[in-house]
Design goal:
There is one protein chain. This protein is mostly beta strands. Helices cover about 15% and strands about 35% of the residues. The protein is built from three helices and 15 strands. The strands form three sheets. Strands 3, 5, 6, 8, 11, 12, 13 and 15 form an eight-stranded antiparallel beta sheet that branches. It has a five-stranded antiparallel beta sheet with strand order 4-7-14-9-10, with no helix packed on it. The N and C termini lie far apart (about 55 Å). The relative contact order is 0.21.
Amino acid sequence: MKNRSILVSYLFVGIFIIACKPGKTNEKTGTTEDNFLTEQEAKDGWKLLFNGKTLDGWRMYQNKPADAWGVKDGELYCKGNSTDKSDLRADIISKDQFENYELSIDWKISPQGNSGIMYHVTEEFDAAYLSGPEYQLIDDIGFPDKLEEWQKTASDYAMYNATPRPTKPVGEFNTSKIVVNDAHREYWLNGVKVVEFEAWTPDWELKKTTGKWKNAPGYGLAKKGHICLQDHGGGVWFKNIKIRVI
């Protein structure tokens, strides 16, 4: 009887550990995994953009030579560089292009780090940010320079401020979602909608032509393009990158 009680106790502890482990539950194995779609997600049309093992499905912007990106422990990462002067650095983009969709992605930033998730990126410009809008990723608290609101996490960089901003501490994974449905855009952070706007409206045009993008005529005009993860010289990690076309 005593041995049976001990066995039951271990069973409850095991169930509790599995329940508390972050990630997705594989219905077939009953285990919790990253970079995995549940059966329901697959039925709903979600597709993984990162397999957790290789850079298959990704390449450097304009096929530039770069050695800053890699895969380790199921995470796609960009190694930090304090000088940000290397010629072997570049943004990384999805090989496929997308138009209207939901994009979900887990990410964490290094102390003082800076990066971003761009979409509708095209390759006719010297830099990806000259075409694609950017969901900003940054260490809001520890970044060494003063940040404006439009530079902080989850903002539509240099256009629309994120509010509220429920970020997790640096070094912990956040979950972001970007919804693109023609002109309608939504940015979500850890389950909270923090930005919503309509592209190409008079308000949008005013922000573009009087702000940072006034000398970037191609910014934000594409209606289809690559998903892009920014190499801004700081360490950043991504996993559970998935997309659902709408």
